[in-house]
Amino acid sequence: MDVTAPFYVAGHRGLVGGAIWRRLGEAGHHNLIGRTSGELDLRERSDVFDFFSDIKPRYVVLAAAKVGGILANNTYPVEFLSENLRIQTNVMDAALEHGTERLLFLGSSCIYPKLAEQPIREDSLLTGHLEPTNDAYAIAKIAGILGVQAARREYGRRWISAMPTNLYGPGDNFSPTGSHVLPALIRRYDEARQAGAGSVTNWGTGSPKREFLHVEDMAAACLHLLMHYDGAEHVNVGTGRDATIKEIADVIADVVGYDGETEWDTTKPDGTPQKLLDVSKLRGLGWEAQIGLREGIASTVDWYREHVGDLREAG
């Protein structure tokens, strides 16, 4: 890629977009363009088209999205469907009209059926029912994949899609109501440690298995795909290894220094029983995750403690 070309990162202040922005800068891209949601509301179609008309980006990473954990997804399905569809459609349509050569759309592993065969291959898409607690978000992301494929088929654009597993790391959302499971657990255990609480209560049974990828690894994978992949099929991005939520919670408790008891509220939903991605396609392209889970959790805990005073509190 031409490091002097206009490169727009949608969502450059978010967990993923921020890491991609840093990685692109390290790779020498010095014409990076970003706008906060206050500066540019990607849900407003005319504003997005005006923005693309002004900057005419040669490259785009579409990392902007409305995201959240089980509680947020299950409570606000209308917002998760509507806002993500509008963001994606507006950005892709404007990119088509203004000649964007290369676009990377970032989805989510929740696009796959709830009971998909593990590890989940890319061709498992649309082969079964989705997990009900986040089906609206999943449908929006599936629509994004099809939008990329349609642009390739109809207009010959070299656009691609990447489907990351559960992401975490510095810059994550630690909101009690809007965060994903790993940052929520970090906050819960660290607050319990500070309060001297004798026990912590987590949702569900602790038995579901999840795969976690550090956001800096995700950013490295995205740059690798932009440089080395040009295909219609989306690409899974993960570590190829998972652990139970209970095992994750035990690691977090140990890292933060909490020595109390952990209890499980089995009246709350577990979500998908297991979600492990088959990353053989990505490995075949020459990329593999480098940051181990405990190492990644430790760096995230350090960041959380350093920024606890100015964290996002909304979902």
Describe the 3D structure.
There is one protein chain. By secondary structure, this protein is of the alpha/beta class. The chain has helices at residues 15-26, 45-55, 70-75, 77-97, 135-155, 181-195, 215-228, 245-256, 280-284, 293-307, and strands at residues 7-10, 32-33, 59-62, 102-106, 160-164, 166-168, 199-203, 209-210, 212-214, 235-237, 243-244, 261-265, 274-275. The chain is built from 10 helices and 13 strands. The longest helix is centred in the first third of the chain and has 21 residues, at 77-97. The two termini are 35 Å apart. It has a domain at 7-168 and 212-241 and 275-292: NAD(P)-binding Rossmann-like Domain (Rossmann fold), CATH 3.40.50. The strands form 4 sheets. A 6-stranded parallel sheet has the order 2-1-3-4-5-10, sandwiched between helices.
